[in-house]
């Protein structure tokens, strides 16, 4: 009888073949970029090394296709677990589902009280199920080799071995990027491993629910459940309670959005004086030590000018018409009932928990770190920084000249990436150890020379609050409820 390949091997081979057929059409554009770079005939060649320029151009060509693949196919390709090898500890865990619905009730109340003028009056927020949220405890494994596999021990024992190598109490609650519909904690292990190594701490990397199957506020609920799980471990947890002063919310891109969204939800819960009934006990919802966001996606509807003006420096595709996402039909899209956005229902497109740059206040927030490049999201990130300063929040901002979106995770050989990880980790450590010493700073890191130049926060964003509201309303084709009144953000 003929031997049959294991199902997992067949599945992996199919995924690799899909990847090959996706990559092949991009080769001519890559060759063109190489030639223009060598001849110094492209603007990026003045700032970027050839290798980095090719990677950025390849990703741009790959992502900005006129005929996108079905959502489920693209999503499936990014969820392939590459396996766990090398200098990393991973302990896979999942939270218990609380017997009460209080965590969801409190979150929905915060969403409702924050919607203001940006949600249609009769808009009703979805009510997601409370589920068991999976996560990966990640730490650095110093004595391992690149080929080392995890020992065949229980997840609890893996956690215990990881903790033996932690030299600090830093705990990073990490949310991966991927536009809320792609990626997984397994795809971000290189990032979480590096942060664990640089801080001497550990990372709790969350497998939150993905859109379009689970739109807003499912991921936010999973994030809040994960935070409470750290603070107040349910029965059977492998970890003891973690003090909020040792927890920093962090993430990249959509994960940066989720970390800041969780912070805004916690702020609103506290403004309302609410607590949570959690496994039979009334629990406070404290602020974390800080938030560290790498290229956070704040403007969910992609309305700000840099989404177009910075395209030449980035690989992210230009925004498409929200009324026509041009995605082929498959099992998970279009949604039923239909909506314009993968992540959120139409009535809530401009809710300040979705479009974070429209929030009224960040007052009382802990210290916040934001970094970005010359990317499509630059306008919204710079606006956030200027808004945080106005609201009295300590903020550390780093802008990397000519760098694309989340460059530190993509251009792993670039010196800018090493500098970014150092700054990112340094802030996280300081937020836990001595937050009172964090002073607001605003820095540009020059390409190639790596020279650091102070910049004025007054010059970060040229836009007014009214500009932001107009951009957002124009983008979704909705008229403002207050056309003659400046926005109260």
Automatic annotation (TrEMBL):
Signal peptide (UniProt feature, chain positions): none
Keyword annotations: Hydrolase
UniProt-listed SUPFAM superfamilies: alpha/beta-Hydrolases
InterPro entries in the record: AB_hydrolase_3, AB_hydrolase_fold, GDXG_lipolytic_enzyme, Lipase_GDXG_HIS_AS
Membrane-spanning segments: none
An annotated Gene Ontology molecular function: hydrolase activity
Top-level lineage group: Eukaryota
Chain ranges of the Alpha/beta hydrolase fold-3 domain: 172-408
UniProt xrefs under Gene3D superfamilies: alpha/beta hydrolase (3.40.50.1820)
Family per record: Belongs to the 'GDXG' lipolytic enzyme family.
The protein's name: Alpha/beta hydrolase fold-3 domain-containing protein
Source organism per UniProt: Apiospora kogelbergensis
């Amino acid at each position: 009888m003929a031997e049959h390949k294991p199902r997992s091997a067949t599945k992996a081979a199919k995924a690799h073949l899909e990847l090959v057929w996706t990559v092949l059409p991009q080769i001519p554009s890559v060759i063109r970029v190489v030639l223009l770079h060598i001849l110094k005939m492209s603007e990026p060649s003045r700032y970027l090394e050839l290798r980095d320029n090719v990677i950025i151009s390849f990703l741009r060509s790959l992502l900005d296709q006129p005929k996108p693949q079905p959502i489920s196919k693209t999503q499936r390709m990014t969820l392939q677990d590459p396996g766990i090898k090398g200098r990393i500890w991973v302990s896979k865990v999942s939270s218990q589902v609380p017997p009460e619905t209080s965590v969801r009730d409190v979150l929905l109340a915060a969403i409702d009280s924050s919607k203001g003028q940006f949600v249609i009056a009769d808009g009703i927020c979805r009510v997601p199920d409370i589920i068991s949220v999976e996560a990966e405890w990640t730490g650095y494994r110093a004595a391992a080799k690149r080929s080392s596999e995890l020992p065949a021990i229980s997840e609890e024992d893996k956690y215990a071995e990881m903790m033996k190598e932690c030299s600090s109490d830093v705990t990073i609650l990490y949310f991966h990027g991927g536009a809320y519909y792609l990626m997984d904690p397994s795809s971000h292990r290189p990032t979480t491993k590096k942060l664990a190594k640089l801080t001497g701490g550990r990372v709790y990397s969350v497998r939150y629910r993905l859109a379009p199957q689970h739109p807003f506020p499912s991921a936010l609920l999973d994030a809040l459940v994960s935070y409470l799980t750290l603070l107040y471990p349910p029965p059977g947890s492998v970890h003891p309670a973690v003090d909020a002063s040792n927890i920093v919310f962090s993430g990249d891109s959509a994960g940066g959005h989720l970390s800041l969204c969780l912070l805004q939800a916690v702020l609103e819960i506290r403004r309302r004086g609410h607590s949570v009934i959690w496994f039979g006990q009334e629990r406070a919802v404290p602020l974390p030590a800080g938030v560290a966001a790498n290229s956070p996606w704040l403007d969910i509807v992609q309305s700000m000018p840099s989404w177009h003006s910075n395209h030449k420096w980035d690989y992210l595709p230009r925004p498409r018409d929200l009324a026509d996402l041009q995605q082929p039909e498959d099992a998970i899209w279009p949604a039923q009932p239909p909506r314009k956005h993968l992540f959120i229902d139409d009535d809530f497109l401009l809710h300040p928990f979705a479009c974070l740059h429209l929030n009224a206040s960040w007052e009382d927030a802990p210290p916040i770190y934001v970094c970005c490049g010359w990317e499509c999201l630059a306008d919204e990130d710079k606006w956030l920084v200027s808004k945080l300063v106005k609201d009295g929040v300590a903020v550390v901002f780093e802008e990397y000249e000519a760098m694309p979106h989340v460059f530190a995770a993509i251009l792993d050989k670039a010196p800018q990436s090493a500098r970014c990880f150092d700054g990112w980790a340094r802030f996280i450590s300081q937020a836990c150890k001595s937050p009172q010493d964090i002073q607001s700073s605003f820095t540009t890191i020059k390409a190639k020379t790596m020279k650091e130049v102070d910049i004025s926060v007054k010059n970060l964003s040229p836009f007014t609050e009214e500009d932001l509201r107009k951009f957002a309303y124009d983008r979704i084709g909705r008229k403002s409820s207050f056309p003659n009144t400046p926005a109260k953000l």
